[in-house]
Design a protein that fits this description.
Layout: E1 4-6, H1 28-31, E2 36-40, H2 46-53, E3 59-62, E4 74-77, H3 85-96, E5 100-103, H4 104-112, H5 132-135, H6 137-172, E6 178-184, E7 190-196, H7 220-227, H8 236-240, E8 245-247, H9 254-260, E9 276-278, H10 280-284, H11 291-307, H12 310-326
Parallel strand pairs: 1-3, 2-3, 2-4, 4-5, 8-9
Antiparallel strand pairs: 6-7
Length: 330
């Protein structure tokens, strides 16, 4: 199915179409359900935009300056600073006459529920006030309060489970009960993440390796505690120490980050916040251990940082309970 229709007028410049205002202003809810959206971008980026959005479940029309009606129209712009003065004025007029006009990345954020990282550019990150989790002290204090409260409650509730798990690990195989590993945290500072050991003590004798589904290095007890996420419970200590949050991007190892940032745009921006025991990516995307999987999880991590709220944290925690009960995700 052809999702892209390029009806750019021959001159590539706005015509004299902006004459009549719409009779009804489109609502946000309606804007997010339109079957067709109009995108305006520099001509040299058209093919890239088409390739990125070709799989989306709605039609995208690029640079159609002959558009002459704005009833329930969604108009998105990408790199508008690179448009000509006349083209930018066209977008301003469309806004004045009642069209829904919004940056493309922002619109896709709300419609898809994740950030299209292939469309990111530096300007997306240069408006810190748009990231309340980064710029609002009250938000940070609120999140820390939730973290400590949740960690203390979880520690009390899970204590019997932790004791049984520790005994099971000790009985099954030789080695320490807890496993410590350096991970990269907020502001790119390394810390030691603490987990129940789920693999043999020689799991990385050949060097660092991606953890994969049905990993042969995982012990029998380890398989169960990884599936139920019991192995993550010792990270309560990381939370109390202020190194982690209950919800946030999962912490990764520097050896993998150095490779991933070569192919994934702005991959280290995930370190603008504390890593989490669980996160939006973990409950939204199935288990994976490839660069493509890392790209998808990055889409959810960037979305989480931009749109963080206490309500979103609660939703992630509720979804985490579902993941634990049904053994999905990671």
């Amino acid at each position: 199915m052809d999702f892209m229709v390029d009806r750019k007028i021959e001159s590539g410049e706005p015509g004299e179409a902006l004459q009549k205002p719409v009779t009804r202003i489109i609502s946000k809810g309606s804007a997010l359900t339109q079957k067709v959206i109009y995108v305006y971008c520099p001509s040299e980026r058209e093919s890239e935009i088409k390739q990125i959005v070709e799989s989306y479940p709605f039609e995208t029309i690029v640079n159609d300056y002959a558009l002459n009606t704005y009833e329930k129209k969604v108009i998105c712009h990408f790199e508008s600073a690179s448009l000509t003065k006349e083209q930018r004025q066209y977008l301003v007029k469309a806004t004045e006459l009642g069209a829904w006009v919004e940056p493309l990345v922002s619109y896709l954020d709300h419609r898809l529920g994740y950030t299209e990282v292939k469309l990111l550019h530096s300007g997306y990150f240069l408006h810190q006030k748009a990231f309340s989790i980064l710029s609002t002290k009250r938000t940070q204090l609120s999140k820390r309060f939730v973290d400590i409260t949740a960690a203390v409650c979880l520690a009390i509730i899970s204590l019997p489970v932790c004791i049984v798990t520790a005994l099971a690990i000790k009985l099954e195989s030789k080695g320490p009960i807890l496993y410590r590993q350096k991970r990269v945290g907020q502001y790119n500072e390394e810390f030691e993440v603490i987990k129940f050991r789920s693999m043999g003590t020689d799991a990385e004798k050949s060097g660092a390796q991606w953890a994969i589904q049905n990993d042969s290095r995982v012990t029998k007890v380890g398989k169960f505690i990884r599936k139920t996420r019991i192995d993550e419970l010792p990270q309560i200590l990381n939370i109390l120490k202020g190194e982690m949050s209950i919800v946030g991007p999962r912490p990764e190892r520097e050896v993998f980050i150095s490779e991933l940032e070569k192919t994934i745009p702005y991959y280290r921006f995930r370190h603008a916040v504390k890593p989490g025991v669980t996160g939006l990516a973990q409950v939204s995307y199935p288990y994976g251990a490839s660069v493509e999987d890392a790209v998808w999880k990055h889409k959810y991590d960037i979305y989480y940082i931009k749109h963080h709220s206490t309500l979103l944290d609660i939703k992630v925690l509720l979804k985490t309970v579902k993941v634990v009960l049904f053994g999905a995700g990671r």
